[in-house]
Amino acid sequence: MSDTTQATERPLVTLKTHPSPHPFVRRGLVGTSANHLPERCVVRVAAPDGSPLGEAFWNARSDIALRRLTQGEQAFDLAALEASIERAVGLRESIPGLVDGSQAFRVIHSEGDALSGLVVDVFGDLLSVQLFSAGWLEILDELLALLHARCGTSHHNVEMSERVARLEGVRPLKKRSPGAPKALKIEEHGVRYHVDLRTGHKTGFFCDQRDNRHGLLSWVQGARVLDLCCYTGGFGITAATLGEVESVTAVELDEDALSVARNNAKLNQVRVSFVHADAFDWCRQTERNGTRFDVVVLDPPKFIPTHSEMQAGKGKYRDLNKLAMELVEPGGMLLSCSCSGLLGRDEFLELLRSAGRRANRQVSILGHSGAGPDHPVALECPETEYLKAVWMRVW
């Protein structure tokens, strides 16, 4: 891809029907004009009447055959990419206290920044990049150069997971810049964290929960806090470090994540009772023991990664929330989260209602939240509002 590449030089793909404004176009909507295309390239997209719809990544092996990157007659070239990166970084710089007050934040949020299939987090001097579209593999070097130039970073860690690679029809990718650290330390709201880029999930640290971790402090003074599915301990360690709590218990099944969580507690010189256990089994046993907590945080992994896992994932959310509600001291608080973008907010609330009935508990919603403003939501792509957090009083 170069600045001199003109839109007229690119293959034209005509759709069978006029699509919705959503940036994804499924394979079944693509007309016969795509039959002789290479497996992957950038194409012009047109409606059935020939009107231009922008340019897109084409992938013949993916169910998401087209990922739209521009609109109308705008070409997707290096100048357009640089302009999109400039807009994205400029947004983060305009968020009060984000760039100056945190060493970890999201700088590219895929469709929310009109760069479909690209997620980039900044950790100090390092960019942690996740690819969800094979299209970015074709221009990866140019992309990284533009990102480093605008963000002022020196190192990068790039990954396309096995699951995504399988869906995109390519090989998984792990790429590190020479001399890039395998682990580093960051600070958020005065709390310090280890970020292990070798074993961490997603980009290595959950920047999306930054505001919710800080918001929890309003509720935890003098409380017995339970952090279920604690990952590397973000909620529990923030509460223990800044919240004047009575105690913190943190439960996690992933041994690597739990090891990092223990190191995070040591880094902040706080006492947290860590438990290596499956959250479902541990909750059942704890309920039988009669133990209760004043504040419970439930932030499980993504239970619904694909449409085919929708029903099973819903059952997991409902069952685990029921178990969590049973552990809340009457009058205590539950913060329940879902990071499944395919699960809508209303559907999540219905699962919580069902969980409350099964737990025989009365539940009042105190508020809703999600990811911070460094995770902008595209109105035409509701999946970008993937994180849902519901603050509840449980009786």
Question: Which features does this protein show?
Answer:
395 residues, alpha/beta, Archaeosine Trna-guanine Transglycosylase, Chain: A, domain 4, Transcription Regulator spoIIAA, Rossmann fold, 3 domains, 7-stranded mixed sheet, 5-stranded mixed sheet, 28% helix, 28% strand
Your description of this structure?
It is a single chain. The chain is an alpha/beta fold and 395 residues long. It has three domains: 7-68, Archaeosine Trna-guanine Transglycosylase, Chain: A, domain 4 (Roll), CATH 2.30.130; 78-180, RNA methyltransferase domain (HRMD) like (Transcription Regulator spoIIAA, 2-Layer Sandwich); 184-394, Vaccinia Virus protein VP39 (Rossmann fold). Helices cover 28% and strands 28% of the residues. It contains ten helices and 19 strands. It has helices at 78-94, 98-101, 140-151, 162-168, 210-215, 234-242, 255-268, 279-289, 310-326, 345-359, and strands at residues 12-14, 24-26, 40-46, 52-59, 64-68, 104-109, 118-123, 126-131, 155-160, 173-176, 183-188, 191-196, 224-228, 247-252, 273-276, 293-298, 328-338, 363-369, 388-394. The strands form four sheets. A seven-stranded mixed beta sheet has the order 15-14-13-16-17-19-18, with helices on both faces. The longest helix has 17 residues, at 78-94. The radius of gyration is 22 Å and the shape is globular. The termini are far apart. The model has no long low-confidence stretch (mean pLDDT 94).
